Amino acid sequence: MKRALSSMFMAGSLVLAGVLPGMAHAQDQKPDAAAGEQLYLNGDMSRGVLACITCHGEGGNSTIPMNPNLSAQPHEYLVKQLHDFTPQGDKPAVRTGPDGAPSVMASIAPALTPEDMRNVALYLTNQALDWDTAPTATNEDTVERGQTIWRAGIADRHVPACAACHGAAGTGIPAEFPRLAGQYPDYILEQLKLFQTGDRKNEIMHDIADRMNQSDLAAVANYAAGLRP
Questions:
Q1: What's residue 7's pLDDT?
Q2: Could you give the CA distance from residue 121 to residue 112 in angstroms, rounded to a whole number?
Q3: Domain segments of the chain: what residues?
Q4: Directed axis angle between helix 185-197 and helix 214-226, to 10°?
């Protein structure tokens, strides 16, 4: 198990190191949270960029279960996801919907410049998640199973504990793994299914989700949503 977790952390670091091709020059410029706020609130219709607030809510606090809460997520993680929605040359986008269909973000992210992505990400990183209204676990019957998987994994299927990467309280590891606490359980479950099928490309998460059955995926998604720091 220790060897597996070590490999996971190494793989995660390598993935992050290579997700932003051609971005070295852009990284020399400090992101502008104020510019990110303007783009988040107003979009830029001259470039076909919709206002992010429409789907992700005020300050990144989404009110739509299938749209994730983005507030207080790690800056690097948010930038990576925006790039993953964007085709790179002849290569298709890393993130797609079920059966490889384009995601909603596939029509939005490509219009963003690398600077836009970093600016919006910084704005969202600086926003606070509203824990009073944040989603939580909705199925009491599966909490115990979800807790077991989160804390200890599933040994006979070589599934590591979710807490190893996402933290005991679901707050994630900044720059590598996202916060799942206070996320919508339906959204988490949908992402786990996309990892399982490979429609959302992530070798680490595919290998983990592929060893889990549907009830386990639902249980851990429900439990993760209910975690609090």
A1: 46
A2: 12
A3: 2-9+134-226, 20-125
A4: 140
Residue 90 to residues 10, 48, 87, 178, 216, Cα–Cα distance (Å): 28, 22, 7, 28, 36
Q: Provide the whole-model pTM.
A: 0.86
| Per-residue pLDDT tens over the stretch 159-199 | 999 999 999 999 999 888 999 999 999 999 999 999 999 99
- Cβ atoms of residues 54 and 60 within 8 Å: no
Q: Supply the DSSP string of 35-72, one letter for each residue.
A: HHHHHHHH-BGGGTB--THHHH-GGG---STTS---TT
Pair of tokens at residue 46: 């001259």
Topology annotation, domain 2-9+134-226: Cytochrome Bc1 Complex; Chain D, domain 2 (1.10.760)
Name the CATH topology of 20-125.
Answer: Cytochrome Bc1 Complex; Chain D, domain 2 (1.10.760)
In the predicted model, residues of the chain with pLDDT beneath 50 are 1-26
